[in-house]
Amino acid sequence: WDRVTQAAQSLLLMLDYNLLVVTGDLGDFRRNWQKAADLARRFFEPPAERGTIFAVLGNHDNPRLADAALPLRFLRNESVSLEFFGIKLCLAGVDQSSRDAEDLDAALRDGRSQAPTILLAHYPSTAFRLPLGRVQLVLSGHTHGGQIRFPRLGCLWANDRIPRRMSRGLHHVAGTPIHVSPGIGVSLPLRVRVN
């Protein structure tokens, strides 16, 4: 727990939102999943008082996190129906805690209605594997915003099989909007973020 984590939690508690989602990597090492669970519990308990927080597992997450007593509702290759202001939508989540955990077909199976579908996927590259027109919005993370960025050049490494320019922010893949969150953490081998 550090200054950045505290500031992020404070900002989150000040925001007015209808849906809060987490796109994975609650910790940095799978073997330290209990520490990640403790930190996630501390971070998400206050905002969870406002409603369900949905999450997916990322590549650094141990699947045991999904069974820990956390204030998060993990979507593991599944979807749920939600309604906001009389509008129904499908929220789907794909488990990307390991290469063989992902089942995109299962995650999208229940959302074949007319309701718009939002997909939570840790890896932004998932957007390139989606059936055309099947998902209306992808929310992802993993890249840490490129982690090291330079003016005019952007990031040096996107940490996924995507163009470097897609390492953070809103983009489109075959007409589907994808938002890549920069998150608040870092990825090895460098424990640093620049710009």
Radius of gyration: 16 Å
Strand/helix succession: HEHEEEEHEEEEEE
The fraction of residues assigned to DSSP E strands is 15-25%
Number of helices: 3
Give the biggest beta sheet: 6 strands, mixed
Distance between the termini: 22 Å
On the 0 to 100 scale, the average pLDDT is 90
What's the helical proportion of residues? 10-25%
Q: What's the total number of strands?
A: 11
Structural class: alpha/beta
- Uncertain regions spanning at least 5 consecutive residues: none
Give the strand order, joined by hyphens, for the main sheet: 4-5-6-7-11-10
Shape descriptor? globular
Features:
195 residues; alpha/beta; six-stranded mixed sheet; three-stranded parallel sheet; 17% helix; 24% strand; globular
Provide a short characterization of the protein structure:
This protein is an alpha/beta fold.
Characterization of the model:
- The chain is of the alpha/beta class and 195 residues long.
- Helix content is 17%, strand content 24%.
- It has helices at residues 3-14, 33-48, 104-109; strands spanning 20-22, 53-55, 73-74, 78-84, 87-94, 117-121, 137-140, 149-150, 154-155, 169-173, 176-180.
- The protein has a six-stranded mixed beta sheet with strand order 4-5-6-7-11-10. Strands 1-2-3 form a three-stranded parallel beta sheet, covered by helices on one side.
- Helix 1 runs parallel beside helix 2 (33-48).
- The protein is globular and about 45 Å long.
